[in-house]
Design goal:
Layout (H helix, E strand, L loop, with lengths): L8 H13 L5 H78 L4 H11 L7 E5 L1 H11 L8 E5 L8 E4 L4 E4 L1 H11 L9
Parallel strand pairs: 1-2
Antiparallel strand pairs: 1-3, 3-4
Length: 197
């Protein structure tokens, strides 16, 4: 006996009855069903497209944010490099101006010496004013009358760069050499460039 032969007459009647009770689909109902399927497919496709677009937009925003941060970091680094370059240029110009001023007006050493002497303690005895021989030749005739020779002696020292001096005392030294004054200025500017490189 096959599977179909096992069904009873009543069961076969139910199936026939059920099939007979279903109306025959019409073109209009088929069109409505097709439109419903299209609508459902469109809604699902639209939702999938919106989600895909949202994911792409988030990824694009993330890339743009990374680019903006990278650009900002690059600009910051460039600012620091430019600031360093401007500082180096300014120091080069300043060094040239100072050297040119000293060459054109070597008597400016008198201002340096007078300032150093004012900073020297009044109680200092037997100090030595070390100067470049060329500067000493300029200073000696002008300071001979005002210097207390028992208290301060001018000593020529070729190691002292023109434009500076060094006062040695028993209490300590007062360094007014060009290199020391230059070092003070560049340290204030956050640099460590030497006078002569």
């Amino acid at each position: 006996m096959s599977g179909d032969d096992r069904t009873t007459a009543f069961e076969r009647w139910e199936v026939v009855e059920l099939a007979a009770s279903q109306p025959e689909p019409t073109a209009a109902t088929l069109e409505d069903d097709l439109e419903a399927l299209r609508s459902q497919a469109h809604a699902q496709g639209y939702a999938a497209g919106v989600e895909s677009g949202r994911l792409e937009a988030e990824e694009s925003c993330s890339r743009v944010k990374q680019l903006a941060e990278s650009f900002a970091n690059t600009l910051d680094n460039l600012d620091f490099r430019l600031a360093d370059m401007v500082l180096e240029l300014a120091l080069d110009v300043a060094r040239q101006v100072v050297a040119g001023e000293l060459a054109a007006r070597p008597e400016r050493i008198l201002d340096v010496v007078n300032l150093a002497l004012k900073q020297m303690a009044e109680s200092t005895r037997e100090a030595r004013l070390l100067m470049n021989p060329e500067d000493a030749a300029l200073v000696r005739p002008r300071l001979e009358q005002v210097l207390d020779k028992n208290r301060l002696r001018i000593v020529e020292d070729a190691r002292i760069v023109r434009g500076g001096c060094l006062i040695e005392t028993s209490q300590g030294d007062l360094d007014a050499t060009l290199q020391a004054r230059w070092r003070q200025v560049v340290q204030v500017l956050g640099s460590n460039r030497n006078w002569i490189e």
